[in-house]
Specification:
The chain has 861 residues and is α+β, with helices and mostly antiparallel strands. The chain folds into 5 domains: 100 residues, Beta-Lactamase (2-Layer Sandwich); 183 residues, GAF domain (Beta-Lactamase); 133 residues, PHY domain (Beta-Lactamase, 2-Layer Sandwich), CATH 3.30.450.270; 180 residues, Heat Shock Protein 90 (2-Layer Sandwich), CATH 3.30.565; 112 residues, Rossmann fold, CATH 3.40.50. It is 38% helix and 21% strand. The chain has 19 helices and 35 strands. A 6-stranded antiparallel sheet has the order 8-7-6-11-10-9. A hairpin with a 7-residue loop joins β1 and β2. The longest helix has 60 residues.
């Protein structure tokens, strides 16, 4: 069998004659620049065992080697066998340069690969050794490494490939995200024009061609007018054609030949640029005549292109790493800032200033729990709501981007001048909350190599695509598009998505934890409040029963009960007040004596210097003394005719020693159960103040000793000791005085109080003070309406009206010049707005005395 088919392009045909044995399976369907042999062991071994190792190890000599010996020398056959053994991987290719296949033939450059179960040998006449390929590529790589930016890097790569290959034009052709291409660099022979900056539609390189570019990195067409050589036979023993995907001489689609012919190109070469496993672009080489770079020279170009791709990937990775470093810095800022102020997450101005440090954007929108916040160039709120709903349909919990929002939401065309592109970053596990970065429209002119809207048309033979005929520069005005977010920016967005999601989840967990703690505190507070209210009601009930008069003088009975209840409120005020400064211990004792011993306060006898307790100790001892007096009034000496002695003094360490001793009461025994009050007495001083408490129960009466550490005590001695003129050192609480009965004569008084019972009591007190007319209001609206209709000349306003306050009423009264005062059950802890800080606050419960004193001060009597 004559094997010189496909050799017509050679200066002298090569005669490889087969013997009278079974044929060596296939000849090439190739460009006429060499020859191809496809060797199959099928006629020697079963297909199932025809793997490379078996073939090379067991059947080469018996099957292929024996047949090749009839065509090429034993030495060449042995060299080819050894190179086949080096193939590693599905698309591996081996090359042998300048090898003599036979003594009577010139040297050849040989390419080897496996196609299915065929072993393919391709050979081109060698044109002499290129030289030291390693040093050539090393020198080329050194030159591109000296470039400082991507444009010069691309430009130098194109220039080096042209210098090495001899093509008239070498372009660096980069694929965009939509698979269209742009010429980003060019090296060109003078006088033939420039394609730099031109765009080409994605249809110019079909999907199947792109896939082939990833497998076979270099393709060459030496003469577009050459007649391709057919494959003989067309099918192998299994009835399949030979797959020439990895062939160095495979023929080209006639459509592509026509495409090149329409461009006026006579020869071409393309070298794939693979970055991170994907087809980044090509070195596209054009020549306006025939050109056949040698196989060895093409291999050097391919090696340089691989090094170029590695350097490009390294540069892009460094840029990405810088982006990611900035993203980590921003993540740390986000976590740190939101940890101290979780409201920042709803502040688009703050978020925008943080995020746009890493990802350039013109506006920021935040959508959290159905509410929105916008900053910068963004859609309107209603448009943003529709846009988030559209994003929710496509994002699937991942970062989503588009440079043309109208593709996602058609009505977006009306706001494309403000926001044409977006990057949506989910910030919750379920795709419902987003931070959206917007970019404004960029109206730009794109230079196409021919009209991109008519890249192909149907030919005369029906639905067969034909290539474009015109490659004249065609300009298109692109509107409604923004600058796309780059892959690096998308990776940064993924980092930020993880951070923002973590922030939101942490906030949710913290909010849940706080709610849980609040619920626990509320339950405890309700339980304790219930206990305290029951105790207070019990005490009041006891006061009422113990105050029952011997005669039927109801008026004196009411007055007595009223005074004792007010004294009890005064004692509670002493416990809960926030002094924020030292206060005398004597005040605690006086308050409790006033509450329980109104008739004989001297039953509690005290001795000690003028000692002040700091706020924490004052509050703690107020509660302790309250419990001691309460218990004594219920069960101890104060429940009968006995007395209590309370003494305090400083020891050598400066600690305050307080003793409590009951005498003259009923016999005492240790309680069988320990209640909350006993716990306070026993544990408050040690636990809260770091001191000690010791309580005993002799039959003669309860005895207790408390040690309060010196750091909680302040003592004023000598001339700095203030004189206590009254047994009750805080007259603002209202000890009994005789009010003038006509204090409010001639006045119309407005009372704002949301509790009916308390309002009736205040109304009764005001009328007894002589007011001409009293009007009550329970709500903010009713109070404001009463001002306009009633025209009051004085007013008393309860601060808290359910979930509202009476401050708007106060503002209106101040505008009209009507004198008024506030009332509150919170004592001195009531919080007043700045414009009303100097107003008088009457502490509840209302009594004739405290209302009269406050009104007298208010009206200037």
């Amino acid at each position: 069998m004559n094997l010189n088919v496909g050799m017509s392009a050679l200066s002298e045909p090569v005669d490889l004659t087969n013997c009278d044995r079974e044929p060596i399976h296939l000849l090439g369907a190739i460009q006429p620049i060499g020859f191809l042999l496809a060797l199959s062991p099928h006629w020697v071994v079963e297909r199932a065992s025809a793997n490379l190792d078996t073939f090379l190890g067991e059947t080469w000599e018996a099957a292929i080697g024996q047949r090749l010996a009839d065509l090429i020398s034993t030495e060449a056959s042995h060299a080819i066998k050894n190179r086949f053994a080096l193939l590693n991987g599905e698309d591996a290719v081996e090359r042998i340069f300048n090898i003599r296949l036979r003594d009577d033939l010139p040297p050849f450059d040989v390419g080897l690969h496996v196609s299915g179960e065929q072993f393919v040998i391709e050979a081109e006449p060698a044109e002499g050794m290129h030289g030291d390929a390693t040093n050539t590529v090393r020198s080329m790589v050194a030159r591109i490494d000296r470039t400082t930016d991507f444009p010069s890097f691309y430009r130098e790569g194109a220039r080096l490939i042209r210098a090495l290959s001899g093509f008239d034009r070498v372009m660096v052709y980069q694929f965009d995200q939509d698979k269209s291409g742009e010429v980003v660099a060019e090296a060109v022979r003078p006088g033939i024009g420039s394609f730099l900056g031109l765009h080409y539609p994605s249809n110019d390189i079909p999907v199947q061609a792109r896939a082939l570019y990833k497998r076979n990195l270099l393709r060459v067409i030496t003469d577009i007018n050459a007649t391709p050589v057919p494959v003989l036979p067309a099918l192998d023993e299994a009835g399949k054609p030979l797959d020439l995907s990895l062939s160095i001489m495979r023929s080209v689609s006639p459509i592509h030949i026509e495409y090149l012919r329409n461009m006026g190109v006579g020869a071409s070469m393309s070298i794939s640029i693979i970055v991170d496993g994907e087809l980044w672009g090509l070195f596209a080489c054009h020549h306006y005549g025939t050109l056949r770079p040698s196989f060895e020279l093409r291999s050097v170009c391919e090696l340089f292109a691989q090094m170029f791709a590695m350097r490009l990937e390294s540069r892009e990775r460094r840029e990405t790493m810088e982006f990611e470093r900035r993203a980590r810095d921003i993540s740390d800022q986000l976590l740190g800032a939101v940890a101290s102020d979780d409201t920042l997450l709803n502040d688009p101005d703050w978020l925008g200033s943080i995020l746009t440090d890493a990802i350039n954007a013109d506006g920021v929108g935040v959508w959290v729990n159905g509410t929105s916040a916008l900053s910068g160039h963004t859609p309107e709120v209603e448009d943003f709501r529709h846009l988030v709903a559209a994003i929710d349909q496509v994002a699937d919990g991942k970062v989503f981007t588009t440079d043309h929002i109208a593709d996602l939401l058609p009505e977006a065309e009306r706001f494309q001048d403000r926001a044409a592109g977006l990057l949506a970053i989910p910030i919750s596990r379920a795709a419902r909350d987003y931070v959206v970065l917007f970019r404004q429209e960029i109206i730009r002119s794109v230079r196409w190599g021919g009209d991109p809207h008519k890249p192909v048309e149907y030919g005369p033979n029906g639905p067969r695509l034909t290539p474009r005929e015109s490659f004249a520069e065609w300009k298109e005005l692109v509107e409604g598009h923004a600058k796309p977010f780059s892959p690096s920016e998308l990776r940064v967005a993924e980092t930020l998505r993880a951070t923002l999601t973590e922030v939101v989840l942490r906030m949710a967990d913290e909010a849940m934890h706080q709610r849980q703690q609040a619920n626990e505190r509320q339950e405890l507070l309700i339980a304790e409040l219930n206990h305290r209210v029951r105790n207070i009601l019990g005490v009041i009930r006891g006061l009422v029963r113990q105050s029952k008069p011997h005669d039927d003088d109801i008026e004196s009975f009411v007055k007595l009960v009223d005074g004792r209840i007010h004294a009890l409120a005064r004692a509670h005020n002493q416990i809960t007040d926030d002094h924020w400064g030292p206060a005398p211990i004597q005040a605690l004792i006086d308050a409790e004596a006033a509450a329980f011993l109104a008739d004989r306060p001297d039953r509690i006898r005290t001795s000690g210097g003028y000692v002040l307790l700091n706020p924490q100790a004052y509050s703690t001892m107020a509660l302790v003394i309250h419990e001691l007096v309460t218990n004594s009034a219920k069960y101890g000496s104060l429940s009968d005719s006995g007395t209590v002695s309370m003494d305090w003094k400083r020891n050598d360490d400066g600690d305050l020693i307080i003793t409590w001793r009951e005498e003259g009461g009923p016999p005492v025994r240790k309680p069988s159960r320990k209640g909350f009050g006993s716990t306070i007495i026993d544990r408050s001083v040690p636990y809260d103040l770091g001191g000690s408490a010791d309580i005993t129960y002799p039959k003669t009466g309860v005895e207790a000793t408390f040690c309060i550490p010196a750091r909680h005590v302040t003592e004023v001695a000598g001339e700095h000791t203030p004189a206590i003129k009254s047994k009750y050192p805080r007259p603002a609480l209202g000890h009994p005085v005789e009010p003038p009965e006509q204090l409010l004569k001639g006045h119309q008084v407005l009372l704002v109080e949301d509790s009916l019972i308390i309002a009736l009591d205040a109304e009764d007190i005001t009328e007894r003070l002589g007011a001409d007319k009293v009007v009550t209001a329970a709500t903010l609206a009713a109070g404001l309406e009463a001002i306009e209709s009633f025209k009051p000349t004085a007013a008393m306003l309860d601060i808290n009206l359910g979930d509202r306050t009476s401050f708007p009423i106060a503002d209106r009264l101040a505008e009209l010049g009507v004198p008024f005062l506030f009332a509150s059950g919170y004592g001195e802890q009531a919080q007043l707005p700045e414009q009303h800080q100097t107003r008088t606050v009457v502490q509840k419960p209302y009594t004739m005395e405290n209302v009269a004193r406050a009104m007298d001060e208010l009206l200037g009597r």
